[in-house]
Design a protein that fits this description.
The complex is a heterodimer of chains A (113) and B (113). Chain A is mainly β and 113 residues long. Chain A has no helices and 11 strands. Chain B has 113 residues and is mainly beta. Classes of the chains: A mainly beta (113), B mainly beta (113).
Chain lengths: 113, 113
Amino acid sequence: SQQGEEDPQALSIQEGENATMNCSYKTSINNLQWYRQNSGRGLVHLILIRSNEREKHSGRLRVTLDTSKKSSSLLITASRAADTASYFCATETSGGSNYKLTFGKGTLLTVNP
Amino acid sequence: NAGVMQNPRHLVRRRGQEARLRCSPVKGHSHVYWYRQLPEEGLKFMVYLQKENIIDESGMPKERFSAEFPKEGPSILRIQQVVRGDSAAYFCASSPLGGTEAFFGQGTRLTVV
């Protein structure tokens, strides 16, 4: 079953606006990661937030994590047309030496110039 | 400092043939993950390997699919007797150890005709 579920499935905004994407998950995690995928390409790692962290920033990206609600959000501020891509959250769970990354279905973000 | 290298980028196979997908992880990375992505969907976990060991193959069909990550050389995902439903993009990722970001390759797009 899918561990992470992104919401919304698709988001269309104007350049300069902020974009917020949410991710919910089901089980306890070590960390949660956000990735970006341009059409037909591989995934690029954006940011990792550990289970004992609540907020993290990287440039125009802000990620929050609420382990009590099992949810995370990714905020992209001052969006640009080049931010158009699919965004995935991935949760890492571990059992022994098994560090497993499980992805959600993604949010397709379209930034209109 | 090369990233994750996957080859071939595109692979066309007739039904019943074998497909071999190769993944060279980032130098020094001992964790390799394989994922499958269907059009407009997220990444589905297939298998997680550490050097010479399969740690978690819960996402890989038990028949026709196999994976290895030998002491020397790339990781190989093998699909025997391919069927049309195997057509997808297959992504490989590597990480140096658990709890860190994963680096993705550009994927192999398999088309079964």
